Amino acid sequence: TTIVVDFDAxxxxxxxxxxSTGINPDATYTVTVNTRNTIPVGGGSSPHSTIQSxxxxxxAWFGSSxxxxxxAGYLTGTKTIEVYNGTYxxxxxxxxxxxxxxxxxxxxxNASGDSPVINASGNTYGIxxxxxxxxxxxxxTVHSADDDNIYCExxxxxxxxxxxxxxxxxxxxxxxxSLNTQVNNNLVYDN
Length: 191
Hints:
By secondary structure, this protein is mainly beta. 6% of the residues lie in helices and 32% in strands. The protein has one helix at 51-62; strands spanning 16-20, 28-32, 38-41, 79-83, 87-88, 106-110, 117-119, 125-130, 135-138, 141-143, 148-152, 158-160, 163-165, 173-175, 182-184, 187-189.
């Protein structure tokens, strides 16, 4: 018999779910839970309410070996934070210790057909990639950061199809020491 259960990630720790029969003597089983590769924000199945909480949850699940294809119980491949329509006010900062690789990127992007907005008013950055490599930021409107709307030091990333305006004291998009990061098809103005 196969049973499929959908539950929030916060109901299990370290990809382990303990199942008990509740009958004495108790038969307890431990099941390794594969996590999903697409984590929704603001919509979809079991969504996070903020982009940052999805990123924090991703790091809590995987730590620095997040995208290691040889780690038992992990889904291999690129991890995507898929953001639905809405206005988000958190400073989006992935943990720089995530284990991204050339074949297993972190993608933070809009859900298909959606146009999420990051109102960064009061935050230093709207999106701060820091020095995390192999990270993509796609499909956001980011505005009003105290410094830069989108900031990146990581290598081999992609910043594409974003709209950036109104950065108070900085720029719309900044690459600082980034190597081989592509910035294309963005609309940047009034920064």
